[in-house]
Amino acid sequence: MIKNNKRVFVEPGKGIIPLKKIVMDLKGFGYKYYISVEWEKMWYPELENGDFMLPKYLSYLRELLGH
Strand, helix or coil at 17? Predict the structure, then answer.
């Protein structure tokens, strides 16, 4: 998401990346393999700790995948 001309990282499903559509398309194509996300705090030190945000991504993706 862009706010005040700066990139702002937000919780999954609340930003500009259409994660739900991407996952639904993958499911529709019969994709049954791994999905990964990156949380690059090394490059963006202002990011929240991955220990906080990555479980949110896991939960969100599991919800979309029906697990």
Answer: coil
